[in-house]
Each structure stands twice: as structure tokens, then as C-alpha cells.
Amino acid sequence: MALDHFNPLLRTNDLVQELKWDRELRTRFETSEAEVLAAYPLTDDERTAIADRDFQRLYTLGLHPYLLSQLARLIHGTGEQAGTSEAATALIRSLLGDEYEKYMAERGE
Fold first, then answer.
1. How does pLDDT run across 83-106, given as a tens digit for each residue?
2. How far apart are CA 60 and CA 54, in angstroms?
3. pLDDT digits over 43-62, tens only?
4. Is 87:31 a contact under the CB 8 Å cutoff?
5. Dihedral (C-alpha) 62, 67, 73, 79: value to the nearest 10 degrees?
6. What is the mean pLDDT of the chain?
7. Is the distance from CB of 88 to CB of 103 less than 8 angstroms?
8. Residue 54 domain-assigned?
9. Is the residue at 18 inside a domain?
10. Which terminal residue of the chain, N or C, has fewer Cβ atoms less than 10 Å from its own Cβ?
């Protein structure tokens, strides 16, 4: 995943960074996501993509790929095995869309 779409001005980049480092903000996000999103100067597209867990849309809007994976982990939790957590699966499924099942079959999973 390249930086073709990365937009450093996209405010979701700031939100995810702050969620990573601010435990209180992360707790508020877990209990009152809409309230946290309302406090940030996000576009309607950003808010909708976060609420819908549409990682593909967030990538297209310009969320940095690293922060995209961090947001998936923050939302879905982390797993012990790299690439097999609910977060990784949700991210891959969102990015691949209809190609997800084919991708998994090719991997033998």
C-alpha cells in the first residue's frame, strides 16, 4: 500500500495519532464515539467512513496507511498472531472487498 492517497491535511490523521497516545480520549471514543468525532473538525465523509468502518474510503480520503492499521486495531482490538486478529481481518476485508474470499483461498485459509 503506497502513499498515493496520503493527505497530511486530513484531520483523521490527527485523530488517530491522538487516540493512540491519549488513553482518556481512547476511552471516550470507545464509550461515546460520535461525541469524540463531533469534537474534531472532520468532514462528513471522514465521520461517515469512521462510523461505517470503511477503511477503504478512509484510505482514499488520505488517511496514512500506518494510521489506517492503527485505527483498525483501536476499533477492533489486537490479536496475538500478526495478521489474524479481528482488526487485521476487518482491514483486509474492507480493502479487498469482493476479492477478499479469493485472496484467502489463494492463501489456503
1. 556 777 788 888 888 888 887 787
2. 10
3. 999 999 999 999 999 999 99
4. no
5. 120
6. 87
7. no
8. yes
9. yes
10. C
* Global pTM value: 0.72
Say which DSSP state 54 is in. -
Length reported for the chain: 109
Kindly tell me the burial class for residue 20, based on how many C-beta atoms sit within 10 Å of its own C-beta (0-12, 13-18, 19 or more). middle
- Higher per-residue confidence, 80 vs 54: 54
Q: List the grid coordinates of 75.
A: 476499533
> What domain range includes position 97?
11-107
Identify the CATH number of the domain in which residue 33 sits.
1.10.700.10
- Cell reading at 101: 474470499
Retrieve residue 46's grid coordinates. 471522514
Contact present, 40 and 19 (Cβ < 8 Å): no
